[in-house]
Automatic annotation (TrEMBL):
Residues 4-234 form the ABC transporter domain. GO terms for molecular function: ATP binding. InterPro entries: AAA+_ATPase (IPR003593), ABC_SmlMolc_Importer (IPR050093), ABC_transporter-like_ATP-bd (IPR003439), ABC_transporter-like_CS (IPR017871), ABC_transpr_FbpC (IPR015853), Mo/tungstate-bd_C_term_dom (IPR008995), P-loop_NTPase (IPR027417), Transp-assoc_OB_typ2 (IPR013611). It comes from the Bacteria. This is ABC transporter ATP-binding protein. PANTHER family: PUTRESCINE TRANSPORT ATP-BINDING PROTEIN POTG (PTHR42781:SF5), SPERMIDINE/PUTRESCINE IMPORT ATP-BINDING PROTEIN POTA (PTHR42781). Gene3D superfamilies: P-loop containing nucleotide triphosphate hydrolases. Residues 350-361 have a biased composition (Basic and acidic residues). Residues 341-361 are annotated as: Disordered. Keywords: ATP-binding, Cell inner membrane, Cell membrane, Ion transport, Iron, Iron transport, Membrane, Nucleotide-binding, Translocase, Transport.
Amino acid sequence: MTKLQLSNVSKRFQAVQALKDVSLELDAGQMLAVLGPSGCGKTTLLRSIAGFEFPDAGAISVDGKVFMNRRTWVRPEKRRVGYVPQNGVLFPHLTVAKNIAFGLSRAERKSSRVSDMLALVGMDGLGERMPHELSGGQQQRVALARALAPAPSLVLLDEPFSALDAGLRAALREEVRTTLKAIGATAIMVTHDQEEALSMADRVAVMRHGCCVQVADPVSLYKYPADLGVARFVGEATLLQAPVANGCIDTLFGRLKVASGCPENCRRATIMLRPEQFVVGKPQGQPVSGRVLKTIYHGHDALIYLRADAPLGTEDIRVRVMGAPAFAPGDRVGIAVSGDVMAYPQPSPEDERAGRQERAA
């Protein structure tokens, strides 16, 4: 069942096109992460759904009820949408319990709703505390409980973990995901953190310059980016220039097969390789060898920076390996590639010149 539907939503702030023909659908019970750099339109999109911004064009509906189109405008307080702002923003003069109760009817305040919400976010017994007595993570839990208390049809989270340190952010985002899944909530989270988006969401929408350039599940988004911009933004990538012939590419790493959906024949293409697609080992018997420049250990995995020997020079690549690296700077290693690769057609020099002339005209 479709919970949220956006059709060609656009919003301009004077000279800035914040949103441009954004269309999205989200099924009930799913979480969507809206991912993109600062200024791409993420927060404007969220505020438009909540009713805090009035789009210039398009339509927004939840559960089949139109919130906004050319003829209709539903005020924010009538939308039954929960909103968790960036820093929680609790009322400093109210207790935790009264913060959560804000927005509930008198009958709901007298019921067990507040205590149920405290239990849901793991804060039993803390209802009489004041916001300044809570840690940053606890304040965000209270903000989530307050948003969920009125049983909204949709929950919106605007960079909810950006003010927290890395360790707390990782733990809290898993708690929030578990909480939302436990009650079957439909949610949209805005973030610029790739790891956050890929680990929490059922679907990820990547925005750039006000446009939604790709919507996919996290695995498909990472493995099959829609264009080079998405490939560079989501994860790390090594890019090579090579022609594609009959679905194959001849590279310094040997003959590689392009992934399904890529052009099978292309005179000029950019090839994308993820760090985990490289396999390193002893130099003997491998298509190409190289020298280790440095290693960066992350605990669960490590990145090895290599300079591969190429027929016409060198190629710098990054390799991801599980656990501690087995190679030290200066070591020589053999390098191979595993799996299909993404290929993106590039315009010819003639097309590029024509495009520049057209834009200048």
